[in-house]
TrEMBL record:
Domain HTH araC/xylS-type: 10-108
Identification of the protein by name: HTH-type transcriptional regulator, AraC family
GO MF annotation list: DNA-binding transcription factor activity; sequence-specific DNA binding
Keyword DNA-binding: yes
Highest classification ranks of the organism: Bacteria, Pseudomonadati, Pseudomonadota, Alphaproteobacteria, Rhodobacterales
Highest taxon listed in the record's lineage: Bacteria
Entries under InterPro entries matching the protein: AraC_E-bd, GyrI-like, Homeodomain-like_sf, HTH_AraC, HTH_AraC-typ_CS, Reg_factor_effector_dom_sf, SmbC-like
Keywords recorded for this protein, A-Z: DNA-binding, Transcription, Transcription regulation
Gene3D superfamilies hit by this protein: Homeodomain-like, Regulatory factor, effector binding domain
Length: 278
């Protein structure tokens, strides 16, 4: 597959993330890709597995869901920023995908306080086990910026895997988070978006190799949209860890994604949050 097609896919995905409130019609995205409207539609679907309209809707709603849970802007403003001209249309489309109105989704996503210390006396809300994780080698793309924005790097990673027919060599989708968002500014946070690879697979071009050593690990299972995953971290560090008698290892947290946001509803997404232990 010519790199020019990969570049066009990545350019268009980045444009959607950067301009959710803008003109994201098929014609506009074909212009960004520098390809005719008719052929661009077919190329995009062949290389990503979804239509342009499906990608636009999914990304817009993900950005809106994140803003609802992690920000304080009015629902109407969030809807406009996600490209919906009025609150009614935004609420209808959001509820179809997330199973709740924007206001109800915001209330549910804020059930857990952002300060882990506030939870130190409570019982954990998400199931957590300790298990021995295998060592893994990842092929990944580096991401710098807010962890809530790593989706754009996963979009790029998935597009490259599809374009290069790399999926048979990949195993679990995994995100690695190197810094603490409590102490590092959003713009400087470092992470990786990628997947574990089969043994002996050569590192794909333009990707970085990331080694996860494995060993004793606390694994919390979170069910729900990625926009609410920060609550699970509060639960892990503020409720489970103080009661566990365990101590974290000097290694980053990582997330294992058990199903595909292209195929299941946001409320059905399953994520294992992995905290390496001493």
């Amino acid at each position: 597959m010519s790199n020019s097609y990969e570049d066009r896919i990545l350019r268009v995905l980045g444009y959607i993330y950067d301009n959710p409130e803008g003109d994201l019609s098929l014609d506009a995205l074909a212009d960004v890709a520098a390809m005719s409207r008719f052929h661009w539609h077919r190329v995009f679907r062949a290389l990503t597995g979804e239509t342009c309209a499906q990608a636009v809707r999914r990304i817009r709603l993900h950005l809106a869901a994140t803003a609802l849970v992690q920000g304080a802007a009015p629902v109407e403003s969030i809807g406009r920023a996600a490209g919906y001209p009025n609150t009614r249309s935004f609420a209808r489309v959001f509820a179809e995908s997330y199973g709740a109105s924007p206001a109800a989704f915001r209330r549910k996503g804020r059930l857990l306080p952002p300060n882990p210390n506030l939870m130190s006396q409570g019982d954990p809300m998400f199931p957590t086990t300790i298990r021995d994780e295998p060592a893994r080698t990842l092929a990944a793309l580096a991401h710098k910026g807010a962890y809530s924005e790593i989706g754009r790097s996963f979009e790029a990673f998935s597009a490259l895997c599809t374009a290069r027919n790399l999926w048979p060599q990949m195993r679990q989708m995994i995100g690695v988070y190197l810094d603490s968002p409590d102490t590092v500014p959003d713009a400087e946070l470092r992470s990786y978006a990628g997947a574990s690879t089969a043994e002996g697979v050569a590192l794909p071009e333009d990707m970085e190799e990331v080694a996860l050593p494995g060993g004793k690990t606390a694994v919390m299972t979170y069910k729900g949209p990625y926009s609410g995953i920060h609550a699970a971290y509060s639960d892990l560090f503020g409720a489970w860890l103080p009661q566990s008698g365990e101590e974290p290892a000097d290694a980053p947290c990582y997330e294992i994604y058990l199903n595909d946001p292209h195929q299941v509803a946001p409320e059905e997404l399953l994520t294992e949050i992995c905290l390496p232990l001493k």
